## 1
Amino acid sequence: MQTITLSNGVQMPAIGYGVYKISNGEMPRCLREALECGYRLIDTAQWYDNEEGVGKVVAECHVPRSELFITTKLQSGLRVADRIDESLRRLRVDYVDLLLIHWPMGNDAATWHSMESAYGCGKVRAIGLSNFYGDDLEKVLRQAEVMPHVIQQELHPFRQQNELVMRYRQMHIVPQAWSPLACGRQNIFSNPVLTRIGKAHHKTAAQVALRFLVQSGICPIPKSVHKERMTENIDIFDFLLSGEELAAIRALDLGHGLFGWYD
Ligand code: NAD
């Protein structure tokens, strides 16, 4: 698995497996298949209500803990230290690899300081933000003693946020893409530009979209419950998009999000 090095030296897989909307019941089959396909980064959240399902697979699978990269997310608020411990218990681990604030809530600087403490005592190996823009982002950055290692947000060919991504790069923050396949919107899987480029490389539109992100230094976390699609989505490390192809995909940017929130 290709990895990307975070600013603190931690190695993060260049692609991950998102588990939003996978229930605790479905999790064993889906996550075992994802691990068989080669995924090592698992992206969950307290809000997804499926950390127990992830924990069961993590405890029973044959992949050593050190080879897994587990991300979870919490919401800002009180009892952050307790809620981190609750996630660790549900996930059946003694550390998570990445902990994110899921979305801004106004009291995020205090939450960030609690996360810095958890980072300091080894309960989390990296910390970051998700869906933070404008003032919400600046407030955390101004007060942070540990700068975010990763920022996760909506990123795909139709929502590229180039200026922000460039700024993260200058700050040594790794951008991570949620809904990297636009959750199927805008007919992404039959988009003429992605399909044409895919044909030239014997790849699908989905693979071109994911390759575009990886080649731009952005880590996608696609989700699928179908093993053949999990296999397809991770099979993107054996081809290179040309400058011309990258430019054609850059032109697909709509300049706004597709999900009606955090624009
Ligand atoms: P996605 O862009 O990964 O699209 C997933 C959907 O696309 C699947 O449900 C499936 O129907 C389809 N699909 C996947 N691979 C395909 C393929 N090769 N061919 C055809 N169809 C395919 O969208 P997502 O699930 O919304 O996002 C992925 C992950 O990102 C989530 O599971 C979650 O972990 C994370 N996420 C985080 C936030 C956040 O606020 N931080 C928000 C949304 C999602």
## 2
Amino acid sequence: METNRKVTLTHNEGKETIDLPVLEGTLGPDVVDIRSFSKTGMFTFDPGFLATASCESKITFIDGDLGQLYYRGYPIEQLAEDSDYLETCYLLIYGELPSAEEKKNFQHTIMHHTMVHEQLTSFFKGFRRDSHPMAMMVGVVGALSAFYQDSLDIANPEHRKVAIFRLISKIPTIAAMCFRYSIGAPFMYPRNDLSYSANFLHMMFATPCEKYEPNPVLVQALDRILILHADHEQNASTSTVRLAGSSGANPFACIAAGIACLWGPAHGGANEAVLKMLDEIGSEDNIEEFIQGVKDKRYRLMGFGHRVYKNMDPRASIMRRTCYDVLTELGLENDPKFKLAMKLEKIALEDPYFVERKLYPNVDFYSGIVLSALNIPVSMFTVIFALARTVGWISHWNEMISDPQQKIGRPRQLYTGAPRRDYVPVDKR
Ligand code: CMC
């Protein structure tokens, strides 16, 4: 929203000025609207978007200094405690909590579109058996545009609605198929009588030979992981989805782009990296040496630090409690990896190196431990993050497409390469 405040910039050695309007949101710091800045003949330079808001959005708000996260205004703690994943999806997509009737209809729609096109099973067979599940996710989700051609017209609201439903319904099925394929197990058809999270555990762990009843404590823990990872405003993968979508690419292709970005260890790969790090540290006796290596910048303490949170990540506090619940339910309170993580957490929270840099544990420090306790292999951690984040990505994509002021994303650059020079034939070089 525009205010009557302005920031005045002086340039051209003090001979010219330009007034830049100040905009204010409902929450968070004001932003300077620099769209008219290019009239000066210059651009602004901000690699990594450290000081740049890339868009206007009504979906999620993070206060990094206070350690707060809201989806559509609702604190994450309340949603994690009292809501469920599908209700949170509804909230993220439509902006309001559903009525009882709307909730029932939404759940019914999502849970009755969980099967994938049967020919997609043949598509899987093209992958090497030892493919990483994320490699398959990127490919298969992108390929949905080849299977569901009747929901690709992004200018048609009905097509967009169907594509959104299809993505949320089918992502767990595809994620479980990636896992089953990688271990040579048969694909399990979804069970629409189960909840979203219980059905995912069923597709992951059931076999056609015997009955499988998901443990309700573990189902709730998974549901909570999905809620906590459902959205996180303009992070790298969401910005990737927006940028891909800004060219008019179809939603399945855009979500595949988001999955590719999420794969990196500084983003969605962090919980996988936390478990690898705990394995490498091995025992409590090696923590001191490891921490010294972090301070010498030989490696990073994975699961610590965040671009926006300079206080405790609120998702981490919830995940820490969930971690205790799950390990207690499974009788794993004395699990050596968990004990090692707790010791590492204590040392890091007290060490001035981490305190001065405001490096607190983030959600991924604990989510990997919970996922391992759920028997989910490390290679599937980022896949589950992608599953959870699909609703956030698609809500941002939909918000962007519905915005009449939307333009193709096209950053500029500061060129520091060679100046103009003439081509030299190969025999003269
Ligand atoms: N371990 C050790 N030192 C760190 C860490 C860390 N995990 N994170 C930042 N630092 C140090 C960094 O070396 C730098 O120190 P100095 O000022 O002496 O040069 C200072 O803290 C600032 O670091 P930065 O790289 O400028 O911070 P950033 O905002 O660019 O990085 C981050 C954010 C998440 C990429 C980074 O903290 C990191 O690599 N963390 C580990 C990976 C991780 O856990 N990622 C999951 C993020 S939460 C999931 C999500 O939302 O995607």
